[in-house]
Write a structure and sequence with these properties.
The protein is mainly alpha-helical. Helices cover 79% and strands 0% of the residues.
Length: 424
């Protein structure tokens, strides 16, 4: 039986788990920030190539439930560390495939197939990564500061997205646009593959959590056990995630295309505005997490739900008419402050709903299902509304889904007071 970790070992484990999470999400988001660059290389040169690229982005999300299921069970049975190590291995494979696959002009439709397979592998990886890292950080954090330390999952998630944006900014500033469009877009994927190898080594050295060591070994994790023994908790995770993940992707991924196609910003300017807003977003996650340790998780989630319902439409309609980068920055930052009520604590809330023997699966699978349906499809749905001539329909869609999650937040118990993570 494991003894409680000394504070320095606990902090080292949290930092180690977080660093790996950053690289995983960097690899995942590199596709999103480079989608317009890679689209001509993997699809026929026609008007629908950008839409096809975002369709592949969405396809990757539909592997995440399978990853959440398979690797959630794996993490519950073999350890959180084992799940984290496996997930980064798969992410490495997917990134290197994208970096090295010849383009459509060279190998034809095989290029498209390779891209889809790479994203399916990455989706499998990330489906397991979320549950394993959320569970690991929540179990390692300790009762008094669980909200604060678990918020670093989104700090590193956003850091991964921000790093992908910064890499793109560096490439835009350091090489001709023609070279970037021709071959330079491959560099971020190659870098991601190399970093994943380093993370693999780091994760092999992590300590296992006390919760896993003390779990009830007589009870097994599995798909049937989750939905038969914990149906309410699984549904709560799906409903609380639906509006939160849609808002997150609507406020972070879509604005890059939105500022270029609707507001008329250049590629570089749209990237810079998004990066600046994401930096602020990243910085406030631990503040909100620490606040949840004092006042509870529920007030923050309800605050996100209320403000999201009231302000999503005004924010997006205002973005349509922005004339300066500062106006776009403040509007995007305001939206991200709102969604912080969800992002900063969603990992710990989900982990606190389940007992240790099925916690990784309970966090991963319902989240991945909701994320596949509502998060991964967000850019595609937004562009579909735009192509259909009713772009503002997307704003109503986001508002409605946040409203559904708000009802869930209002009806659920505050997990800070009713946590099933029993270790201190």
């Amino acid at each position: 039986m494991a003894s409680p970790s000394p504070a320095r070992h606990r902090l080292r484990s949290i930092l180690g788990g977080s660093a790996g999470n950053l690289v995983e999400w960097y690899d995942w988001y590199a596709y999103a920030v480079l989608a317009t660059y890679l689209a001509p290389h993997f699809f026929p040169d026609d008007a629908s190539k950008d839409l096809n690229a975002w369709a592949v982005f969405a396809v990757g999300f539909f592997m995440r439930p399978i990853g959440g299921w398979l690797m959630g069970v794996y993490g519950d049975r073999h350890g959180r560390k084992a799940g984290l190590t496996l997930s980064v291995t798969l992410m490495c494979i997917g990134s290197l495939m994208i970096a090295l696959t010849p383009d459509y002009a060279t190998i034809g439709s095989l290029a498209t197939v390779s891209l889809v397979v790479a994203r399916l592998i990455q989706g499998l990886s990330l489906g397991g990564e979320y549950g394993a890292s959320a569970t690991y950080l929540s179990e390692m954090a300790g009762k008094r500061h669980r909200g604060f330390f678990s918020s670093f999952q989104y700090v590193t998630l956003i850091s991964g997205q921000l790093t992908a944006l910064l890499v793109l900014l560096v490439l835009q500033a350091s090489m001709p646009e023609s070279d970037l469009k021709q071959w330079g877009w491959r560099i971020p994927f190659a870098v991601g593959g190399v970093l994943a190898v380093i993370v693999f080594w780091l994760r092999r050295r992590l300590a296992e959590t006390e919760s896993f060591e003390k779990r009830d070994t007589a009870r097994k994790s599995g798909f049937g056990a989750l939905f038969l023994e914990h149906p309410r908790e699984a549904v709560v995770v799906m409903l609380m995630t639906a509006g939160g993940t849609l808002a997150f992707y609507a406020y972070t991924i879509y604005p890059i295309a939105f500022l270029k196609k609707t507001a008329g910003f250049s590629d570089a300017m749209a990237t810079q505005v998004n990066a600046a807003a994401l930096f602020v977003f990243m910085a406030i996650q631990p503040l909100a997490g620490a606040l949840s340790d004092r006042i509870g998780r529920k007030p923050l989630m309800v605050g996100f739900g209320l403000l999201g319902v009231l302000l999503t439409w005004p924010i997006f309609t205002a973005l349509e008419n922005v004339e300066t980068a500062w106006q776009a920055f403040w509007l995007m930052t305001g939206a991200l402050v709102i969604v912080t009520g969800y992002t900063s604590i969603n990992a710990v809330v989900k982990a606190e709903l389940f007992p240790a023997h099925i916690r990784t699966l309970g966090v991963a699978l319902p989240y991945a299902l909701a994320n596949a349906i509502f998060g991964g499809t967000a850019p595609y749905v937004a562009l579909w509304f735009k192509d259909a001539g009713w772009e503002r329909g997307f704003y109503w869609y986001v508002t409605a889904m946040i409203g559904i999650s708000l009802i869930t937040y209002l009806r659920m118990r505050d997990t800070a007071k009713h946590s099933r993570i029993v270790e201190d």
